[in-house]
Each structure stands twice: as C-alpha cells, then as structure tokens.
TrEMBL record, chain A:
One cellular component (GO) term of this entry: plasma membrane
Listed GO biological process terms: transmembrane transport
Record's protein name: ABC transporter permease
Alphabetized CDD domains for the sequence: TM_PBP2
Family matches, as SUPFAM superfamilies: MetI-like
C-alpha cells in the first residue's frame, strides 16, 4: 500500500472527495426534492420553492392518487405484465438457451440467426404490422410476447449453461436420462441463482417500459403505470388523467404534489430491488463482451 | 463408359440416402431438444424474421385495406421520396448532431468519474458514492424526463432561482428549441454517467499496484501517475467503447427523445426513430416510414460491422 502524506497529496485527495460528493449530490438531490414535495402542503410549496425536509408532513397527494381508480388499475396492469412477462421471458429464454448450449442439430445456423437480430432488426413498422396481424393489438400480451426473448440475455444465459461441467450431463446420459430430464432435473436446479438474476433484469425492463404501451395499446384502461405517468407528468395532465379521483374530493391537492407522489410510487419497486440490482447488473455489464 | 457413370450416380444416390438417414436419425435423437427449443424458435420466426419480410412494405404503396398482396408495387419510389424530402435530411442531421454531442460530452464523463473513484483511498466512501451514482440508471425514462420537466419548467425551481434570487428573466427551457439538444445530453449524463464507470473501473482494478509504487519512488505526482500509469491502463477500453459508440450513431435515444418532443421543438428534436413513428403510426404512411426504417437499419448494420472489425484491428475481441 502506498502512503500519500505530502500537503499536495492531501489537497488532491480532498478536492477529489469534494468533487465526487458533489456529483453524488447532483444525482441524489432531485430525488430528495421530489420526495419532499410529495409530502408537503401546497402552502409550503408555494412559500419556498426549495424543500428537502417538509415542515408539515401530509399524505394528501398519496390519498388522492389512491382514490383514482385509473392509477390503481395501471399499477395492477404493470404488476401483471411484470410478473407474467418475466415468467414468459425466463421460460422462453432459458429453454432456447439450453437447447443451444447442447449439441442441437443446425446449432451454428440457429446461433447465427439469433445474433443477426442483434445487428439488424426489421424496425418499428413491420413489427407493428405483425402484432396487428396476430391480433395482439390493444392486448396486454402485445407488451409481453414481442419482447419474450432478449437476444443479449439469451447469449449470456447460454454461456452460463455452457459453464456447467459437461461430466454431469454425460453421467446423466449414461444413466439413461433424456434431454428433457437433463434440463429439468440437472440444469434447472443448478441454475436457480442465475435465473433469479435474469428475472431481475427482465422485470426492470417490463416495469420501466412505456413505449410499447403507447405503440400497441389504445384504450387508457389497459395503460401500464409508465404510460399514465407520462400523461400525468410530462404531458402535464394530472387532473385530466386522474379525473375520477377529482370528483370524489372536494379540495384536491395541487397538480405539483400529485405529480411528485406519482413519480415516487412508480419508482418504489425499483428502489426496493436496488441493492440486488446493483450487485447483479454490475456483473452483467462485465459479461457484455461474451462471444456467441 | 456407360456402366461407370451408372456406378457413379448410384453411389451419389446411395450417399444421399445415407445422408438423409443420418439426418433423420439425428433429428430423432435431438427430438427433445427441438421440443424445448420450439417456443423460442417460434418467437424468432414470428417476431423477428416475419417482420423482415414485412420490409417489403418499403417497396409498395401499402394500403392496409388491400393488404401486402393487394397493394401496388412501386419499386424504389419510397426511397426516391426519402432522397427528395428535405425533412429527412433535417431529421438525419438532428440524429447525427445529438449523437456527436453525446460522444463529445456524455462519453468522457464516466472515464473521468472512474479515474476519480479509483483515486479514493476510503473504500466505504467509494462504495457509498458508487451506490448513489449508479441509481439513476435504473429509473425509467418517464421518471427521469418527468423530474427534469419539474425542475426546468416555467414555474419550476430552476426558474424560481433565476427570477427570485438572481433577478433574471425566466428561461423557457422546455419550449425553446435551442435548449432541446443540451437538455437531452444533460439527461443522459445524469442517468448514465455513474453506471458507465463500471466498465472502466473494472479495467482500472487490473492495474498492477507496483506500477504506482515505482512511479512514486521515481517522484511522480498524482497527476503524473494518472497520466502515465492510470490512463494507459484503460486506453484500450476507451478506444473500444468509443468505436462501438460510433457504430451506433444512428441510435440517439428513442424513448428519451420521444418524451421530450413537443410542437415547439419538433424541428430540432425529431430524430430518425421518432420520425418513423410520426410518419408510420401517427400519419399511417406505412410504406414511407418502413423505407426510412430500412434505410436506418441498413446503414446501422454497416456501421456496426465496420466498428466491430475496427475494434478487432485494435487487438480486442470485438463483440460479434
């Protein structure tokens, strides 16, 4: 270990720490601000623009949001899409990745066809046409099936399966196991931790996805939370989007605090999962350069 | 002579039969693997390869009521419309300009942050800072753009500071087109700068500490060490990341820009991807939009492949 003791070194270290802490604050403060405003009264919000700790706490905005059936429903839709979608992702990705990790007929051709979709895709309009022709338009399944496999995760998962020692599967074959039995009794139990990590990757994509909703869904009843959030915050239509709650309350809270509360609610699951996400995703980045 | 040819063709058909038998036996042996792979293969066919045939829309005057077979074949007409359309050039220019601004401003910041984090002596502080700066990566674009709007809108806190504390005029950050591109770049920096450090930190971790020790003994200061020890260690990672980024200059952050667009900034903000949506889905000009998408895909493919072979030439493995 090297020791830095000269004054210049200390000056360097302190400047470095101060700059990094400032960077971290730039990432953190917008979030704290949103958090604080969502719990503030309107009076306080109007008095001082910048609040990091509210003087009087209120949950008015949250009460209002939960009064709105549109909001609660879209949370439900997103939870459904995230859970079912992730299960579909896992099943489809793991099964194809497993087959491609074994010596399946025409393996090289299949791998090439998978890799090619990472380099070139038909694009938005032809995919939209297929979704329309298959009758998925305006169905929640349009947010699940067209993105059932991410080629990138497929390749990474295949690499994981390839890492399982061959001797285990060979021993099973000698014992008379077929490929289905090998997959379900040997590979699957050994891959549980990896599959858990992949389910996190996929779940975050589903939770944060808004554009498929805009592209494929045209009835607001089916909107996932991110689409509704876009309506509430970036289109600035808080009162129109949550109109059903407006009727119930005589004195609705201002759009500002409602917007911030909505942002926070849409982010809570990500924040809860964040410790796990940070751990697994950092590993995933390093797997980025695996070869097919 | 005749009998020889007969023998020859007989052998060929025998070989064909044995090849066919072998393949059939192989299929039978792999039957469970095919069963397992079937849903995945079906997915790739339906949602990845059928749309590629749908690219033929680009060569039609597609009418949704007549279908692909009923629509009139127009050859390269849609591509001629692209070339003749000044709007397309503007959109292409916006795409390239935003990408280059990202490379100029958003690309170097993770490198700088990684070097700074690497200089931290205190592991606890380092982990704390990492935990905070990685977080924005996991937020959805709706949340990031939403928070940005809340801060920068007319009655937002930034304008509150400008008018209330500094006595300046309010600045229309969200509607003035000249702010569009800087805002887009700033959002990407806020969201991805921390996360982008990971790949550089990994190559920094591989630096031999003895190099630092001998540099100290030779009397090198901290900046000299960064310049002569740290940066050379991550130079190849920087070059590879830069090349790969150049390979995707036509992708300028579709989800983000779509959220940022409004009637005031469409001129400066529309990029290729959002243009395909505007033309294809909103105005139902399917054929033209498909042609624009195909153009983007084809050029993108060439760019990625060249970037990749360039990366290989720099002695790296490449991605594909």
């Amino acid at each position: 270990m090297i020791k830095y003791s000269s004054t210049r070194d200390k000056l360097f270290d302190w400047t470095n720490i101060v700059l990094l802490v400032l960077t971290a604050l730039i990432m953190l403060i917008p979030f704290l601000y949103v958090f604080a405003i969502s719990f503030s009264t309107y009076k306080e919000f109007l008095q001082s623009n910048f609040i990091l700790i509210p003087k009087t706490w209120t949950v008015e905005a949250y009460q209002f949001i939960f009064e709105s059936r549109a909001f609660v429903r879209s949370i439900g839709v997103t939870v459904y899409i995230t859970v079912v979608g992730t299960l579909v992702n896992l099943a489809m990705t793991a099964s194809l990745a497993y087959a491609l990790s074994r010596d399946i007929w025409a393996k090289r051709l299949l791998l090439f066809l998978v890799l090619f979709t990472m380099l070139f895709s038909a694009g938005m309009i032809p995919t939209y046409m297929v979704v329309r022709e298959t009758g998925l338009l305006n169905s929640i399944w349009a947010l699940i099936l067209p993105s059932a496999i991410s080629s990138f995760y497929l390749i990474v998962m295949r690499h994981f399966f390839l890492g399982i020692p061959k001797e285990i599967t060979e021993a099973a074959i000698i014992d008379g196991a077929n490929d289905l039995q090998i997959a379900s009794r040997i590979i699957l139990p050994l891959s549980k931790p990896a599959l858990a990590a992949f389910s996190l990757f996929y779940a975050v994509i589903h939770w944060n996805n808004y554009f498929s909703g805009i592209l494929y869904l045209n009835t607001p009843e089916k909107w996932p939370i991110q689409v509704l959030l876009r309506q509430i915050v970036t289109q600035n239509e808080a009162s129109a989007s949550l109109a059903d709650a407006q009727v119930l309350l005589e004195n609705p809270p201002p759009a500002e605090t409602v917007q911030m509360a909505a942002i926070l609610l849409a982010t809570v699951p990500i924040l809860i999962l964040y410790p796990f996400l940070q751990k697994h995703f950092a590993k995933g980045v390093m797997l980025g350069s695996v070869k097919g | 002579m005749e009998s020889r040819t007969n023998v020859y063709s007989g052998q060929a058909s025998m070989e064909r039969i044995t090849w066919w038998n072998r393949t059939r036996r192989r299929w039978w042996k792999d039957r469970y693997l095919f069963l397992i792979a079937f849903p995945g293969i079906l997915f790739y066919i339906v949602f990845k390869y059928v749309p590629m045939f749908g690219l033929s829309l680009a060569f039609l005057d597609f009418n949704p009521f007549l279908g692909i077979s009923g629509s009139e074949w127009t050859g390269w007409d849609n591509f001629r419309r692209i070339i003749d359309n000044p709007e397309v050039y503007r959109v292409l220019w916006n795409t390239l300009l935003i990408s280059f601004l990202q490379i100029l401003f958003a690309f170097p910041i993770p490198i700088l942050l990684a070097v700074m984090l690497n200089e931290l002596r205190n592991d606890f502080v380092k982990r704390m800072i990492q935990s905070i700066i990685y977080l924005p990566h996991f937020l959805s674009w709706v949340v990031v753009v939403g928070i940005c709007f809340i801060f920068f809108r007319g009655e937002g806190i930034i304008n509150g500071v400008l008018t209330g504390w500094l006595g300046l005029d309010a600045v229309p950050f969200l509607t003035d087109p000249s702010f569009f591109k800087p805002m887009v770049v700033a959002q990407v920096i806020w969201k991805e700068a921390g996360w982008g450090t990971i790949i550089f930190l990994a190559s920094l971790a591989a630096v031999n500490p003895e190099l630092h020790e001998s540099a100290t003994i030779d009397g090198a200061g901290r900046f000299q060490q960064i310049w002569h020890v740290v940066l050379p260690a991550i130079r190849s990672t920087i070059v590879i990341m830069l090349i790969l980024r150049l390979g995707s200059v036509l992708d300028s952050g579709f989800e983000q820009i779509f959220l940022m667009l409004n009637p005031f900034n469409r001129e400066t903000g529309e990029v290729l991807d959002t243009y395909v949506f505007t033309k294809g889905i909103e105005s139902s000009d399917y054929s033209f939009a498909t042609a624009v998408g195909l153009f983007k895909g084809a050029v993108g493919l060439i760019l990625v492949l060249s970037a990749n072979s360039l990366a290989k030439r720099f002695g790296e493995e490449g991605v594909y």
